[in-house]
Amino acid sequence: MKTQRQLYYGADYNPEQWSKEVILEDMRLMKEAGVNYVSINIFGWVNLQPDESTYDFDFLDWLMDLLYENNIMIDLANGTASPPAWLVQKHPEMLPVTIHGNRLVHGSRQHYCPTSPIYRQYATDLSEAVANRYANHPGLVMWHINNEYTCHIHECYCDHCRKRFQTWLAEKYQTIAGLNDAWSTKFWSQSYGSWDEIFLPEAMPTFKNPAQQLDYRRFLSDMNLELYQLEKAAIAKYSQGIPYMTNLMGLHKYVDGFKWAPEMDVVSWNSYPNPFEKIPYPQFLANDLTRSLKKKPFLIMEQATSAVNWRQINGAKTPNQLRLWSYEALAHGADGIMFFQWRQSRGGAEKFHSAMVPHGDPHSSRIFRECAQLGNEFSQLSDIVGTRFLADVVVVFDWENWWALELDAKPSTLKYIHQLRSLYAALRALNLSVDFVHPSESLDGYPLVIAPNLYSAPEAFGKKINDYVRQGGIFLTNFFSGIVNEYDQVYLGGYPGLFRDTLGIIVEEFYPMKAATHHQIDFQGRRYDNSLWEEVIHLNGAKALATFQSGYLSDKPATTMIKIDDWNAYYVGTELSLEGLTTFLATILENHKLATHAQHFLAAPTEVSVTCRKGAGYTLVFLLNHTEQTTKVKLKAPGADLLTKETRQLVVLKPKEVAVLKYVD
Fold first, then answer.
1. Per the CB 3.0–4.6 Å rule, which of 147, 337, 436, 587 could disulfide with 292?
2. How far is residue 503's CA from residue 490's CA, in Å, rounded to a whole number?
3. Which of 148, 370, 400, 657 is labelled catalytic?
4. Against a cut of 0.90, is the pTM above it?
């Protein structure tokens, strides 16, 4: 397997849009900008296969050789992301169908049904042809399979999808009786007598069966993964030793990243934080989540140099925002940063999407200058490559829970990522670094496990948490967690059924709050705002740490703790303000004397973000100033700054400035 030895830095490169003279100029500009890695051929299908009977590799042959001659490593896509017009004309049945029965047409991108046998065959054939041609090219360092699966087509309601769904269900449940039991079909007389009676969860009179909707989400993620596996297998017929990946999209709802990650040698995602956000916590969270899919370094395969083109208002990145947010990704486990795209397109839907090379003169462009500065800095940072991120706590994340939590017919509307964002912001305020785990993964080595809004989880996870707490671990969860199993069936005996005994509480009743309403809780003699959700909590071994202060629930438990010998579990029965949640988490840290990795290096607390990556015999400490003030960071010992080449124990950072210090063990 080819091994990465330097930070990857570059962009999506689409030279088919340009003349050879422009491409030759690109080689010069790439060297100037420190580019050492590009993704090519992502949307190259029609260029390689202009009609069904013809393959034309002349241009790509020339380009591959040119990039190699200029010491630019190649991430080669198989080109299957957008089927050509001739294929659509011949086989319109491969196009996806909307929930209302409308078949989409050619003229955009990703216009295929993921279960279509026609699309799968042509995509396999193209993948084989590309792999056969380029598997042994010396410039090739990565296979890029397809592009952003389910970005636009995360549902299809064609006849073939319905038949394939029925087959998928039969494979999963084995008997129709098993499906009826899992789907609770005795409700509303929904019981099935055979597999072919089952529809996709398309347009229906009112609420759809939630278990059916959940299985449909699982099915679509699985079908796209199956497509990825087919394309990968086609390449593998000719290619050995070249890593495989596809670009995920971080907090993208429709692909179960924990299922996909084992099929990739490297995980990556496309990061597009909104420049109008001071600290875009969801995208920062997605860095940690993507790294956590394999617990290994990841790649940013796309980010914007400045503005995108697809928001209603496309804000531009301010000076040094690009650099700061790029180092944020490195600090949290990235081993490479790529942009979409290298040269800003002249036409097409993305012509106003920013790029490394703008429409005007690059040498008069702030964006190009910042990109070149970043690329040349990255050439000094090979010590980062392959190092392990050091996490302080772990957060349980599950795509299937996301799907279940946001189905309709709930006590209130809850958004999984909104809740995670609030938790993540509080953790970051305390300089707590985070790993994410799937409920099936081991919890060993983590002193604190947090399971936010884990509405749906299997019984085995409840037992795992109970065992973890019995062995001295600390557990924290919050409202509407541990409510149903993987079939959306309620755990009976009182909420939160899955965690009831571990937490030492019984929730009698949910009390959702009116929109935009704020109440308060009393915690350690101070008042903190709460919103969205309250509950009637009865203590059954636990004690109240905070109490509600409004209406019927006044002076009743709002947050709880149970402590029996080494048994420690906490519960938050409402949505706390950021200040309240941060204070609550800080109390847990203080109660249990939990030290962060950052504290091993800091001589005094700081508002600067501090994270650590561990190499062979050394630790890298990343200091990132997301504040609006110049800040001094006092360290316990001097470290070698990889960017300035100075030895520093007191680091002064202006707003948006960064430092990377190396400490030898």
1. 436
2. 18
3. 148
4. yes
